[in-house]
Amino acid sequence: MIRINNLNLIYKDKYILKNINMNLKGKVGIIGSSGSGKSMITKSILKLVPEKFITQGSIDFMGEDLVKMKEKDIANIRGKSIGYVPQDPHTALDPEIKIYKQVEELYKIHKEKVNMEKFEKLIKNFGLENTEEILNKYPRKLSGGQLQRILIAISLLLNPKLIIMDEATTALDSISQYQIAQIIKSIDTDYIFISHDLKLVSKMVDYIYVINHGELVEEGKTEEILERPKNESTIKLLEAQL
Fold this sequence. Notes:
The structure is a single chain. Helices cover about 35% and strands about 25% of the residues. A six-stranded mixed sheet has the order 6-7-8-3-9-10, sandwiched between helices. Strand 1 and strand 2 form a beta hairpin. The protein is globular. It has helices at about 40-45, 70-75, 90, 100-110, 115-125, 130-135, 145-155, 175-185, 200, 220-225, 230-240; strands at about 1-10, 15-25, 25-30, 55-60, 65, 80-85, 160-165, 190-195, 205-210, 215-220. The chain has a single domain, classed as Rossmann fold (3-Layer(aba) Sandwich), CATH 3.40.50. The protein contains eleven helices and ten strands. By secondary structure, it is an alpha/beta fold. Helix 7 (about 145-155) runs parallel beside helix 8 (about 175-185).
């Protein structure tokens, strides 16, 4: 779905990402400790990297190089062809605008016909009852678990080819993390799940990439990474879950 070729991200002569090569297809995990550079891969794909950063290499998505794409064109892809679920559900939505208004805005941005019935069905499938009540609530009145369910539903609304989830369960308690993980596993769409939690990621993906200090240090099928890790940083991530 996405092929990253020789991606470098440079800031003030320092490599933030160095020579990243990935074939992101199916259900894939990108893991690494805090500050490893894994979230910068997300920002590079979505072209959310500040202009002062230098981006080299290519990111191929459906025959287009996202690195070379103009902002107005990538804006049409964000939220439509590529869904996105960010880390903190409390800051991802405007706390002073009701949920239904923010859902309507997504449709309007991408010039699509509003389908609130689809949204209600999605959040109900994700365990949220009283959908009409939720639609009329402000995000600040909802819990982190409720908001994350809503964000996952929003990411699916326009039938994306791919969903990127960047530490999408980090801000939640352990029970909510488990519930959201079960929801994510049920999604048919290809997705990339980015996290520092190898144990959690391993339950949701078929293939894992390990990032350390901005470099890809290991990759493989999930069971291979869990049973026969080769890189020291992968071993440390595994030991941290014991």
